[in-house]
From TrEMBL, chains A, B:
Predominant cellular place of this UniProt entry's protein: membrane
Signal peptide annotation: 1-16
Membrane topology reported for the UniProt record: Multi-pass membrane protein
The protein, known as: Sodium/hydrogen exchanger
Molecular function terms from GO: potassium:proton antiporter activity; sodium:proton antiporter activity
One of the record's GO cellular component terms: plasma membrane
Transmembrane segments: 36-56, 68-86, 98-117, 129-150, 162-184, 191-211, 231-252, 273-291, 297-317, 329-354, 360-387, 399-420, 452-477
Superkingdom, natural source: Eukaryota
Composition bias, Polar residues: 559-580
Keyword tRNA processing: no
Length: 597, 597
């Protein structure tokens, strides 16, 4: 409802009208409530439609349209129907709301990504990821902003003002983690590639949010050396502070769960997995809201908290608790993710983005500028590869990886949410960038810069989701960057488990040489063992989900088959036919027996 | 945020002030945002504290304070600290908000209750449950309202007005499902008793909401024969409509899942449990919001939808999907439940309920009236027992059951939410019921009737949670109404599983003689088999959770042990020591082998 307040603040505060309205308010509030209920019911139904259509397309092996695009399309069609039938009131309630997006939709998605992320590849590729996210986004902001401004001033497209161009550059430079997760996790690219693309997209959101906030300050302030320095310091403070909060919350959760001893109790058949799952929700959300309250980045805090919880807390949960949390957060994130796309689709109708066509030429140049702006990928990769020579344990970033990363600059929710906020705050009220008549821009008839930013951002987001998202599977296959045996997303195949486990323990050991932290926070004694346990748990939680290619239980935990050394009983269980549960139980047991391939 | 609007509407709409405020609004909005983030962080932290303290108390076998009371106490202490340190702004954000409660907290709790409810005992005891919920609540409203009014008029306590007394009677007559679930599910009473107490509490909420809404109409309308008739018809419409929506959504979900064939795919190792869990969320929430939008009862709709989904949809989910949904909804409900209690505790400080002590004597008479009002329990039980003679398959409602049901009139969130709404709308602005000087009530110094209702409701809710909730375990033990072998909540013990399964299939068969519905909506062919599968699945999902008394795996599914007829392998797995996963896997397998007792 916050956007209602924002809109109210926008409106001319005419006293007489306000007085009259106050009397009507109660009645209106009731009608509004009914509308809100309808709007929620419709929104949730559209989620259902998206899930069903997405599932059917997956089963039939359709890859040219990602589920994200299905969501956008569903929202678009539904909002179009609303508009066509004159239900504009209803449509108003479906408008994209920055606060709702940031408070309810983004945290579960980012937390889940951190919680179910393989921490090791992320840490291993931290240097290039950080380069792409920090320096890259910074460069991209100025490249995109500059190109769009110059194109406008040369009369090639709608002439946006300089500061507006730069702000647009900052928000469009943020690749979107939601889209990246939705697209990449589905197709299952190699884990190193995924962690770079995903890591960049999460971190650069925070960069984009801070950068655009800072730039917006200059709409009311003078640009001085001092203010630029302050902005830079703010940057450092925001990242350091958010990381500190995330780490603190994560470590605290490990310690609390260790002391609660639910794992030991579960071994004595006193199950507490409901409580474990409920309590596990507390720490990341507190981290998120404390970071937001301190005006730091909640996204970074909750991501880091998720990663720390995956590294330490998970060992202190009972098996059922660990599996329940992994799966439940994944389901919640799937709901939030799909909601974002449906919401985006509806916003394309509910915001007046196509009411002015004079600035559509901006889209072409904006998109071109985005491609140029993402050239920080080869730059950063070249730099990284200087340190990844023949002596290094890490392979250099291949040209195929670079191409996929350059291509996969998927934009989405965050860029759009920032643009929607600029639109509703009307930060750039000047039409045609304040300079008249350039590029045929008629100040009497054109949209203003705020509207131009919203329009262009929204169309770029939709284009990248449909075009890039739709082509990524094909390209990833061509470029040979898919996980072998089409194993799943951020998870690796059983055949490379052992090698990975070795690596995992090495990376961890470098941060915590004597495993002091591990022993303090969990009951594990060595990182190697911990990594093996983690892998087994993960394979148990997500056996072969959503990956029609990987079948025959080839991705079962290696651990399990070590223990169950006497397979004959499986066939016994499997043969106990005539029972409905046969399939379930039989399947469950038999999947543990085939030899790893 | 809706209460902000409500409060704004309440305030005198002075034009000049509004104009000045509009300018400041943006700055305030930003400060407000920071405060809201702190408030959420604090609220979520208190959840964590409650979970931890509740768990520790459970482990140490403390029964005199239910976890619900821990939550209230936590909220109370935290809000007290806020107040003591002068953080009143913060406190304002923690105020109980009717809309938030009804939109975010209640639906998951009620849905989970329906989804994890044993449908058969509920159907079996539908007649007395309906009597208690409908006729009982109706009687109780007039008894409580009348007694409180008479006590006031006789000068025994604060003299509330007639309509205010009746409205108070209507909202305080609703026993609270959240408290009932929190208290009863923990201690594990017999399933028939639980389903009556719980069923009454869900249905009478809807009754109370409708009844108090109707009564509030008369604050501005004349009471005529016509208006009373309209109100009665509204009643029928609300219940019939809500049930229809819930059933429709539930059946649709079964059909959709059947057609998606995720269960069959899972048997071929194509897992889709994340999608199943995400999609399962769609149907009940759509039902809830459509019912609310049509001004019916969302609670009734979502409860019925949950029950239908448990009866049919669950068979169409893969095993992992079925278990994930059961557990995940339970965890979500646990979070929402605890939030309600923490919220209640905070509200006791954030609302000015103790600023006036002159109406505290109302508490005594209100509480007494509640006890008298709940005498519809023996009346309804006596009527029921007329039909449960020696020839009936159902046992009569024993005196012990009647006593527990009479005693367990736990009040909580719903009553309080209604009172908070009356307070913020200030429906009864008259002080001392409009008649001056009665019972020493000084109109210059006393609170008005709205405040008196809020104060009394809140204190009665707290008292019932602490006193009734704290004593119920002791009394249930004494009255011998606990599930044998201290089995869990709405779930029965393994020793009576077979008998129950027989009964289950009988009750279902009565509604759907040829299992037409079952065969249309699932792949099951007989209700008997379906009931057995359901039982096995349930026992798999909640092995022996939260019941320290039930150990040694005695509550494992009978089904499992039928199939796994060759136990020797278990010891093999159990002996594979030196592995961290030993305990988990060993435990998992060995629990299936001990003979049922």
């Amino acid at each position: 409802m916050r956007w209602l307040l924002a809109l109210a603040a926008l409106a001319q505060p005419v006293a007489a009208r306000l007085l009259a309205e106050a009397a009507e308010k109660e009645l209106e509030a009731e009608e509004e409530e009914v509308l809100v209920h309808y709007a929620i019911a419709i929104g949730v139904s559209l989620l259902g439609v998206t899930f069903v259509v997405g599932h059917v397309m997956e089963v039939y092996g359709v890859t040219w349209m990602p589920e994200a695009a299905v969501g956008v399309l569903t929202g678009l069609v539904a909002a179009g129907l609303c508009k066509a039938t004159g239900q504009t009131h209803l449509l108003a309630d479906e408008r994209f709301d920055f606060e709702f997006f940031m408070t309810f939709l983004l945290p579960p998605i980012i937390f889940e990504a951190g919680f179910n992320l393989q921490v090791t590849p992320f840490v291993r590729n931290l240097a290039p990821t950080a380069f792409f996210a920090f320096i890259g986004t910074f460069l991209s902001t100025f490249v995109v902003g500059g190109l769009v401004y110059l194109a406008g001033q040369s009369g090639l497209c709608y002439p946006m003002g300089a500061l507006a161009s730069l702000t647009f550059g900052s928000l469009i430079s943020a690749t979107d983690p939601v889209t990246v997760i939705a697209v990449f996790n589905k197709i299952g690219v190699k884990v190193d590639l995924f962690s770079m693309v995903f890591g960049e997209s999460v971190l650069n959101d925070a960069v984009a949010i801070v950068l655009s906030k800072t730039l917006l300050l200059f709409t009311t302030q003078e640009i001085t050396q001092g203010s630029v320095l302050t902005a830079s310091l703010l940057f450092v403070k925001i990242f350091a502070g958010s990381i500190a909060i995330g780490v603190a919350a994560g470590l605290l959760s490990s310690y609390v769960f260790k002391k609660l001893k639910t794992k030991e109790e579960a071994q004595n058949h006193h199950e507490h997995f409901t409580m474990e799952a409920a309590l596990s929700f507390v720490f990341p959300w507190v981290a998120y809201f404390i970071a937001e309250a301190l005006e730091l980045s909640g996204l970074v805090a909750i991501l880091i908290c998720g990663m720390v919880m995956a590294t330490y807390t998970r060992y202190n949960l009972s098996e059922k608790g660990a599996i329940l949390t992994m799966r439940a957060y994944k389901a919640v994130a799937a709901i939030a993710e799909t909601f974002v796309f449906v919401y985006l689709g509806m916003a394309m109708v509910s915001f007046p983005i196509l009411s002015h066509t004079s600035s559509l030429n901006l889209l072409v140049f904006g998109l071109l500028a985005c491609f140029v702006g993402r050239l920080h990928i080869p730059i950063g990769s070249a730099l990284t590869n200087c340190f990844r020579g023949p002596g290094s344990s890490l392979p250099p970033i291949s040209l195929a990886y670079q191409f996929i990363m350059w291509w996969s600059g998927l934009r989405g929710g965050v860029a759009f949410a920032l643009a929607a906020k600029i639109y509703s705050d009307n930060n750039f009220p000047a039409k045609c960038g304040g300079g008249a008549e350039l590029a045929g821009c008629d100040p009497n008839n054109a949209m203003n810069d705020s509207e131009a930013i919203l329009q262009t951002t929204m169309l770029i987001a939709a284009l990248t989701i449909f075009v890039f998202g739709g082509s990524i599977t094909f390209l990833a296959l061509k470029a040979n960057v898919m996980e072998t045996a089409s194993g799943g997303g951020a998870k690796s195949d059983a055949s490379i488990v052992n090698k990975e486990l070795e690596e995992n323990s090495q990376v961890m050991l470098q941060c915590d040489k004597n495993a002091f932290l591990l022993r303090l926070l969990t009951h594990e004694t060595s990182y190697k063992q911990a990594a093996e346990d983690a892998k087994a748990l993960e394979e148990e939680a997500f056996p072969s989900e959503s990956h029609p290619g990987s079948s025959k239980g080839s991705r079962r935990p290696s651990k399990t088959s070590i223990e169950l050394t006497s397979p004959p009983y499986t066939s016994t269980a499997g043969k106990a036919t005539g029972q409905t549960f046969k399939g379930w139980l039989g399947g469950k047991l038999s999947t543990t027996t085939p030899p790893l391939n």
